[in-house]
Amino acid sequence: MSHAFSHTLQSFDLPSGQHGRLYSLPELAKQFPNIHRLPLSLRIVLESIVRNCDGKKVTAEHVAQVANWQPTGARTHEIPFVVSRVVLQDFTGVPLLADLAAMRSAALRLGKDPQRIEPLVPVDLVVDHSVMVDHYGTRNALDLNMKLEFQRNRERYAFLKWGMQAFDTFRVVPPGFGIVHQVNLEYLARGVHKTQGLAKDDPIYYPDTLVGTDSHTTMINGIGVVAWGCGGIEAEAAMLGQPVYFLTPDVVGFELTGRLREGVTATDLVLTVTEVLRKHKVVGKFVEFFGEGTRLLSVPDRATIANMAPEYGATMGFFPVDEKTLRYFEGTGRTPAEINAFEAYFKAQGLFGVPGTVATADTMGAIEYSQVVQLDLGTVTPSLAGPKRPQDRIELGNVAKQFEALFARPQSENGFNQPAAVFPTRYPVRAGGANKPVTERTIGHGDVLIAAITSCTNTSNPSVMLAAGLLAKKAVQAGLRVQPHIKTSLAPGSRIVTQYLTEAGLLPYLEQLGFALAGYGCTTCIGNAGDLAAELNQAITAHDLVCAAVLSGNRNFEARIHPHLKANFLASPPLVVAYALAGTVNRDLMTEPVGQGADGKAVYLGDIWPSSDEIDQLLQFAMQGRAFRDNYAKIKAEPGLLWEKIRGVAGETYNWPDSTYIAEPPFLSGVAINSIAAYAYPASARGQNGTEMGVVHNARILALLGDSITTDHISPAGSIPENSPAGQWLLARGVRKTDFNSYGARRGQHEVMVRGTFANVRIKNQMLPPGPGGAREEGGMTLYQQPGPHQGRKMAIFDAALQYQSDGVPTVIFAGEEYGTGSSRDWAAKGTQLLGIKAVVARSFERIHRANLVGMGVLPLQFQGNDSWESLGLQGHERIDLIPDAQLTPQSDATLRITRSDGSTQERTLTLRVDTPIEVDYYRAGGILPFVLRELLAD
Question: How far, in Å, CA of 308 to CA of 271, rounded?
Fold first, then answer.
């Protein structure tokens, strides 16, 4: 059939004298004049809808709905967004590849051609989540850590090599090149793509768009790319031809004015932006930056802000394309032809320039936003965030006072619930012996035990990395040192960082303070900090110490950084170095010395803080196009000896050898192409006709949870405890404790992952009675409630879930606000499904996790008004019925019926958070994976 908007396919001129074609938004605006008022991010979404309008999945009605978007209109329509490509990191990418392999295995069993399962858009996987900081503080730390990484992950990497040869559109960036988001920013993003038109010399151009299986995919918004993080199961659908569906969003305009003051970093700015936008409740919304302050920000500063969109809750934080974007492309080694096409395309579409500035007053003056938030950059101050959440910003001068105040506050107020009297107490620690030198020191509350320059947020930004190097240089010259028991590490976002630190002469000073190169990867920010010294762990446990980590990351949720460190602060790289020197968060670095110099005199932060002029003089080393081109050419030419030695099996289908790392996932077992999917409840959970879709009867409560339950709390992450269900499973299969690796590395093995779901050491199931002083027990435990020999017994959530499934009893979870915030971990939903949990009822949901629950066939339901499980008086022994609308109408009312121990009942109305019609189809099919498989294999 003919394209409904073929008349918008127009030619545009390229600087080379050639021309290309595009689906012209200015031409479409003749039919829909409202386009001139659309935010730029929505215009890019609209272009995809027009270009991919096939009359089936994407219709002319969809085009009209987005073209006529109103700033404060009702959000009832879903947008089918076809992306240009998909990016993965290895923690989420390996289970995604396992799902694709399982699809091919299912196809083979069904007598279908396995090669029908093939990504239809380019897919890039960057191996960046597997390196751990086992070795630190020495010049050979990188080499030692990478060797351990390859030893631990040989099976996973062999599986990735199978995927590289099995799928034509699947590429892998090997370990040691950098963090996925920085590699995406510096290398993978090309600005615009082109596809063959009717004639060979008549290509059709279109903008770069994507989804990625990491929530911080939004970093790419810093160069005008519409993109966000999604779960692996949603990414698979996008790879295999499904549009990414989402509700028409509100677009919040964020106007930046003024300029940053001397001594204020991009990290301080993003922590302030996060705090401001969290207060404005932008969850599920687009945020689009505009104004003169936006125009003045460098692209790395923009990317720093865009990166943390998940922390401020937005779907993305979008920055327009302008001259600074072009200069960034030039400085990172893109070719002149690519840059010229990029500029010509965006100008032809009317998308070039920052709205709200003098230069765009005539062309972009009519843009309307759902609401406008403003920030004067001159009001931003040096800050940290923590000690438990990234939105809890603290001005630098208030850190010590805030930590002391939180020390004695109850957990309900984000405190540590400790007696104030013990705050100043210090405890002796003795290390050494057995032919090692004996050392003695003391540790106490607030001591910094991990100081890490890590994560994509900051290590992609030369200004803060050079600032850290300059501060280290001045500190060394002043005679300052970091105490040896503090675990210090440098894990940049790409090799380019260490190259410019070396050329600027700063790396040796960082090394002298212990910040030696430990790896190119996420490391500390995702829980790969490695362990502390045994004597420190013992002292923390014995005295219930609240010790700290300071890191330049974007996540600091409980137990994420290290299970024994309860206080975790986000800070700029130079402040990470400063707190490592101070050794404590109990010191006010604005008024008290950082340390004592070689001459015995006090050294203050102002003495060693670099000026903006000093930083600017060194930025020349950071943006050299040839260095970027040479570095990324090595992905093919010189991927590294360790990678080249890995051998993967060959063939179009995987042979699933016995492994504690990779196993065929169970989500597609029993799929029949022509069957009518029905959710397979046990007999005791069926309605009268036995086939009620989505109805849950006589369920038991597995957990009662509070606010801000993150995917870190739900999904297995970090180290695997020996006495945990997952640890016991590994030991039973002959895996030594030293070879456990991490949950993230074992995401391809569902037997490990399901045993670690809801097993976080800091999760608080409020079914368990409070202890002395009202403190809640921490750890993944519950009370089994089914009548019988186990009734009332406290057991691990996994063991209880297994017993409930054995008894044929469905289970549900109740929670508070912001359920599922944090990383886009599909295993938070996959593990929930495998535990037999049929529904999650919460006060509110984070966007990605809610979609993932639906994608795995788990119902998300939301309390209405002021209702909560607390207001309903739930204690955990009740029986629960959940009755949604018979048609599963998106966002319709559902009934919660509570049956208490005395037989009395109570009902409340909930909202079904199956938000779009396509999600209804996914749920009815038993999940997104069987839905897509059936579609791909249908004759």
Answer: 9
Cα-trace Rg, the chain: 27
Q: Is the pLDDT of residue 685 over 70?
A: no
Quick check: helix, strand or coil at residue 443?
A: strand
What span, in angstroms and rounded, lies between the C-alpha atoms of 529 and 744? 13
Residue 930 has pLDDT above 70, yes or no: yes
The mean pLDDT value of the chain amounts to 92
- Give the β-pairing of 192-195 and 9-13: unpaired
Q: How many CB atoms lie within 10 A of CB 398?
A: 16
The whole-number pLDDT of residue 718 equals: 77
Cβ neighbours for 828, distance < 8 A, ≥ 6 positions apart: 711, 714, 715, 757, 820, 849, 852
> HEC profile for 694-712?
CCEEEEEEEEECCCCCEHH
Cis amide linkage into residue 387, ω under 30° from 0: yes
Instruction: Give the pLDDT confidence score for residue 679 in this predicted structure.
Output: 34
Q: Are 5 and 330 in contact (CB under 8 A)?
A: no
Rounded CA-CA distance 713/719 in Å is 13
Give the CA count within 13 Å in the CB-facing half-sphere of 759. Answer: 28
Q: How far is CA 793 from the centre of its chain?
A: 36
d(CA 702, CA 840): 10
Whether residue 492 has a cis bond before it, omega within 30° of 0: no
In angstroms, the CA 935 to CA 939 distance is 9
Q: What string of DSSP letters covers 417-468?
A: ---GGGTT-EEEEEE--SSS--EEEEEETTBEEEEEE-SHHHHT-HHHHHHH
Helix, strand or coil for residue 41?
A: helix
